Amino acid sequence: MSWGGSAQAARDSLRLNKIQLGNRPKMFKKEWSYFKAKSNYIEASGGTEQYKKLNNFQKKLIRAQIRKEQSADRKQMITLMAIIVAIFIVSLLKLEYFSDSKINERKGIILEKKRIEQGEKQYIEYLVSGDNWIDDDKWDAAIILYKKALIIYPDSYDAKYRLALAYGYKCERMKFDCDLGKTLVNKLLLDNPIHKKELMKLDSIFSVNMSKPVILGE
Fold this sequence. Notes:
With about 220 residues, the protein is mostly helical. The chain has a domain at about 120-210: Tetratricopeptide repeat domain (Serine Threonine Protein Phosphatase 5, Tetratricopeptide repeat), CATH 1.25.40.10. The chain is built from seven helices and no strands. It has helices at about 5-25, 35-45, 55-135, 140-150, 155-175, 180-190, 195-210. The longest helix is centred in the middle third of the chain and has 80 residues, at about 55-135. Mean pLDDT is about 80; it is low at about 215-218.
């Protein structure tokens, strides 16, 4: 077989394959839609497709409606953004408020602790200074300091007992303020029965010296 005969046989084979492929059923259908069906119907009935033209007024109405819808969408978006921003701001303010409250609470605790520490320090200094005045027979000065200690801790038994003791020395040596000392000791006996023994000794000083006259030079 010559080369020309082989080429002719190849062309005939390709033509036959093309014909066979053309006769095969298609695997994919064309897209079918309402507009396609309508077009086919009009074409089958022998009519032509007619589209209604809009006049200028109708176009304006459509444009106005579109603008109205767009404006409504913008308003909704702005409202939504405003709500989100408001929630964010309120959240920040609450966070700041609670943070400030915590800071102020912490500051208050620290200040109160310092105040208590300073008060305790001052209270001890008043007691120590009062005891020193007692040793120097300066009972009035001791009484003043013990009273200052009681301003810091009004329920302190130690300060009240020292005050009664200062009154006892003054009553015994000078016969002054015996009634004040006895009144204080009686109250201490009621409030502190566990200290009855030492308080009764102090009370006896007032009981003895309240009835004694003052002897100059004694």
